[in-house]
Amino acid sequence: MSSDRPVIMQRLKAETQDLHDSAEKHELQRRLMKGELPQELFAAHLAQLFLVHKTLETAIRAAQANVTQLATIIKGYQFQEPYLLEDLKHFGVDPASIAALPATQRLLDTITETASASPLALLGFHYVLEGSNNGSKYIAMAAAKAYQLKPGPGLRYLDPYADNQREYWGQFIADTARCAFTDAESDQLVGAARAMYAAIADISDDLLAPSAV
Ligand code: HEM
């Protein structure tokens, strides 16, 4: 419930709602939900997300030593790189062979720049990806049917926490409530979250472009 949320979490949700609505409506997400996305494209989507998570999570780990909010809020189990590696293995994708699409490369560059210029803003990027697990649970059901997957490799990224999803999201909100953010920091987090939503949409566009896969 939003009344239990610290102000920063209220702001993040309210000030990115428009982009969440668009994300849900994106053709890639719709085709995924309908079980109509070819498996090859699903695997290619996971491959691009692998590059994003690897870069973001490496930057966050490095910044946690100096930025208390990152250390307080971001737990080891939230790092999705290992889950993506399991999924890529399941689909026979060699992680070393993945080439970043143009939109992915732009996001990787933004993450790297942010990590050195304003590392706290990495939390805004992370919020979008961690929050997306709330809806991914439903997408996992569609993917399970479409690609004949059982819970486990292939579906790890879409449903990393299984029965713990609600608890872990509640914990994320509670840990955020334990941290202080200045107005300027909150503005930065909202800006970073909006940039992440836009980047994910751009990556999805690239994936659906005829020459992508
Ligand atoms: C078909 C696609 C999607 C569906 C059906 C979906 C659905 C949902 C649902 C049901 C929630 C929980 C809402 C609540 O309990 O208040 C949620 C939360 C969230 N989703 Fe999605 N989602 C989708 C795609 C995405 C994508 C692509 C992203 C990121 C790029 C995303 C990011 C988030 C975030 C950050 C939250 C947490 C919002 C908050 O409470 O602060 N979602 N989504």
Concise overview:
Helices cover 68% and strands 0% of the residues. The protein is mainly alpha-helical and 213 residues long. The model has no long low-confidence stretch (mean pLDDT 96).
Secondary-structure topology with pairs:
Blueprint (H helix, E strand, L loop, with lengths): L6 H8 L2 H9 L1 H7 L5 H25 L4 H6 L7 H10 L11 H16 L4 H10 L1 H14 L18 H13 L5 H26 L5
Helix pairs in contact: 4-6, 4-7, 4-11, 7-11, 8-11
The structure holds protoporphyrin IX containing FE (HEM).
Describe what you observe in this structure.
This protein has 213 residues and is mainly α. It has eleven helices and no strands. It has a single domain, classed as Heme Oxygenase, Chain A (Up-down Bundle). It binds protoporphyrin IX containing FE.
Number of helices: 11
The CA-CA distance between the termini, in Å, is 41 Å
Largest sheet: none
Proportion of β residues? under 5%
Ranges where pLDDT stays below 50 over 5 or more residues in a row are none
**Attached small molecules:** protoporphyrin IX containing FE
Counting DSSP E segments of at least 2 residues, the number of strands comes to 0
CATH class: Mainly Alpha
Instruction: Supply the number of structural domains.
Output: 1
* Overall geometric form: globular
Structural class: mainly alpha
Q: Based on the coordinates given, report the CATH architecture.
A: Up-down Bundle
